[in-house]
Amino acid sequence: MDQDRELGDLREQVRVVTADIIRDVQKRMELARQIGEIKNRKGIEVKDERVEQDIRKMVLAISSQTGMKPDFALRLLNILLEESESVQAQGRQPPQKQTHLGIFMKAKQLEASGKEMIHLEVGEPDYPPPSAVGNSLSESFRLRRYHYTETRGIAKLREAIAKKENVTEDRLIVTPGGRFAVFSAIVSLLEPGNELIVLDPAWPAYKECADFAGARTRVLKTRFEDSWTPDLGMLEDMINPATKMIVLNYPNNPTGKILENKSVEKIVSLAKDNDLYVLSDEVYAAYSYGKQFQSVLEFDYEKTIMVSSFSKRYAMTGFRVGYGVADPRVIQQLNKIQAAGITSVAEPMQYAALAAIGEDHRDNVKIMKERLDYVCKRLKEMSIRFVSPDGALYVFPELPDIDDLELVDKLLERGVAVAPGSGFGDSYKNYIRISACQPLEILAKALDKTSVVLEEHA
Amino acid sequence: MDQDRELGDLREQVRVVTADIIRDVQKRMELARQIGEIKNRKGIEVKDERVEQDIRKMVLAISSQTGMKPDFALRLLNILLEESESVQAQGRQPPQKQTHLGIFMKAKQLEASGKEMIHLEVGEPDYPPPSAVGNSLSESFRLRRYHYTETRGIAKLREAIAKKENVTEDRLIVTPGGRFAVFSAIVSLLEPGNELIVLDPAWPAYKECADFAGARTRVLKTRFEDSWTPDLGMLEDMINPATKMIVLNYPNNPTGKILENKSVEKIVSLAKDNDLYVLSDEVYAAYSYGKQFQSVLEFDYEKTIMVSSFSKRYAMTGFRVGYGVADPRVIQQLNKIQAAGITSVAEPMQYAALAAIGEDHRDNVKIMKERLDYVCKRLKEMSIRFVSPDGALYVFPELPDIDDLELVDKLLERGVAVAPGSGFGDSYKNYIRISACQPLEILAKALDKTSVVLEEHA
Smallest Cβ distance to A14: which of B31, B128, B149? Predict the structure, then answer.
């Protein structure tokens, strides 16, 4: 009976303090509205990283005084900050964004309306997958390969991948494209209000997935002037108790950069010190030219998620088969979201991937190297600056005083699709990404047209 | 300058009120910890719907007094409630859950170790897809159908589906299984702290997806005694400003129930009055026996998302092709998450679905009806109670004093896999789901074994 009274009493206190919280939150939103009005009048940005950082420090100080879990405190703060931003931004136009995938869709529509189009906007090799893949497809119906499979993938494929990557099978999940491994890692490992760090310029998927997770993306910009090498001191400064993950993508899309091993080592050790996940998207690992690429797996850090794919290596983009390698407990979490989202990867596609895995891909790398060299040569002739790619399928040149979206539109009109730099980060609107996934003579034609457009503009 | 001072002043006030909020939240968590201790001593459940409902009402009252957005207030409250629950539950064992998919994985492992297994735990028809599907597969490599496609699906498939469903193409997205349409609808339309209502017993995916979205699932239980008809008065009572979606799944998995049209009409009108989404999972629509199934699309409510699939109708589970139909603005949101998660459905699988769409599936329905009749007859002979299924692929019988998990384990030992009722909702541990996706002679064998196990137990 005493306990019942105690319980009733505590519940009443909960009611009172909940009411206080809600009233204070409303007060905070009203203040945000007033701040938004002033910012609007003065024409300044809603988001202010410095102010946010100050408030974050204050919240952390309170949480350590009161014994509150710092990650929950920061999660809560981030939810308040987000709502404040949305209150402040009311009535403002959201900035226009265009990614390479958006341009791809636009180009596809132009094609459907009869226009000829050269696709240099996506990383989709033009050469075919190995012929063994075709044989596998042809026999899949006869062999009744059209059922649900284990969510993590059929045993044979997992065995083959485990062998290739030199890991045990329990550290592996087969996903519908490397993209889904990225998606499920971010969505299942991050909670609303958590933070992840992305090194810009970057494939936009990481930020998109973070948005879905309700996580905040903190961006570490890398610069052309530094040959796209990240400033690791700045990286260290960005880490706080809300930070949960660093995303790496080398060989990099869009720059083609491969990091020095000692940089990766330093990043992994920062992650270790701060108990962060390292999500390493290595779908371009097969394509390196000269500089040797080393997988993050070799640094042997428990909280690593390595993502790879059949799409680029074997030119199998449309089969949508990739995989993730991680600690078994993380794999279980990815498995859970994969079970919820798709049950399993289409069985015929898994067998197609299995057929590919023993095949030689070195010719693909040779072809791509030759093409990238050609693109670089032509850009040099046009006096356009770029950092020579160490790997991947792209060149990321700097534009001579023309905005990316303007150039992209002009090129689309002439039947050439390229990806705008701003799709890879807010600071890159004077860059474009050129994909070398077309034969030399097509690349030549596209670069001729680019040269004409730039001359007309100059 | 005046504005600068004003801004600085407002920011200082934001700091103060933020500090108050964080301190109060910590106070609330400390109270939750104390409540958790008492509950633990008294051995009572952490979650108390009545107490939550009271606090929800209070928060709504405050939000209407202060002009706060009620959905944000409730979102925030739900985040506090969740953290409280997790604080209170510290040190407790989480309840063990086992879904049909878990049993499927278990059964697959037993098979891999050499045990023969009859699969009555998943809804995977044993008959083959139409032969046109096989032809499409065989020619897909030659026709170079292995590229990225538009995220929403190839134009031809979208045209064919649009025609079949009698909708315009902009209301359509092709997904990797109906499951992904469910997943992306829930994850993209609900925010953390939002609520969705699920009618139990239900396919567990809805709750799993809600968990990923950080949304709260409110469960409306339906009962065997009411022939699985939902109490719409109770449904109405559950709706509050945090409610954003009602999930329907008829023909129902696991009960086979088809709702009366006037019930659906009433549910849609409740949704309309409260501005809720209706997510209607109709993947079993092709399988109705006698009672005519009417799609929710016919009720013409703007905020409807209808989900369908090729998996059950054409026995194409392993191809992972389904689709969603909704208002174009909703389709854009599903498209966004699909672009982030998978880029597009595997191209050969989309062509396989296209090949199926004109084919006759009526034989499949006839086969399934005969099997379900047989299962029902055998259960009746065993004096086991059930509601005769109006549609779908399952019977959901009540168990005579044996728990589902105990029966499931005993049957697994004898080489029969069935799905435990508790996987479809907390109140159904005295039910199992029997899938009729096997030939009559196999069903006979499985039911013989079931009968033996039950007699041994009695």
Answer: B31
Place of tokens 């191809």: B319
pLDDT per position as a tens digit, B63-113: 888 888 887 888 888 888 888 888 888 777 666 678 888 898 889 889 888
Of B137, B150, B191, the CB nearest to A141: B137
Contact residues, chain A, for B54 at CB < 8 Å:
15
- What is the H or E stretch that residue A176 is in? none
Q: Are A207 and A357 in contact (CB under 8 A)?
A: no
Residue with tokens 């699909």: B338
Residue length of chain A? 458
Half-sphere exposure at residue B106, Cβ-oriented, CA atoms within 13 angstroms: 21
Q: Which residues in chain B are contacts of A344 at CB distance < 8 A? A: 318, 320
Domains in chain B: boundaries:
23-88, 100-123+361-457, 132-356
Distances (CA, A) of A410 to A302, A375, A397, A407: 48, 19, 17, 5
CA A454 vs CA A250, A255, A371, A399, B442: distances in Å: 30, 21, 21, 9, 71
Q: What is the pLDDT of residues A294-311, one digit of tens each?
A: 999 999 999 999 999 999
Residue of A nearest to B18 (CA): A28
Choose the CATH number for A100-123+361-457 among 3.90.1150.10, 3.40.50.150, 3.40.50.620, 3.40.50.2300. 3.90.1150.10
Each residue's pLDDT tens digit, B263-294? 999 999 999 999 999 999 999 999 999 888 99
User: Both tokens of residue B330?
Assistant: 């909703």
What would the two tokens of residue B451 be? 């009968």
Q: Inter-chain contact A20–B15, Cβ cutoff 8 Å?
A: no
DSSP state of A398: B
Is residue A412 predicted with pLDDT exceeding 60?
Answer: yes
pTM metric for this prediction: 0.89
In this complex, the residue of B25, B63, B129 whose CB is nearest that of residue A146 is B129
Contact at 8 Å (CB) between B185 and B341? no
Q: Which CATH architecture has domain A132-356?
A: 3-Layer(aba) Sandwich (3.40)
The Cα of B174 is separated from the nearest Cα of chain A by a number of Å equal to: 13
CB A180 within 8 A of CB A201: no
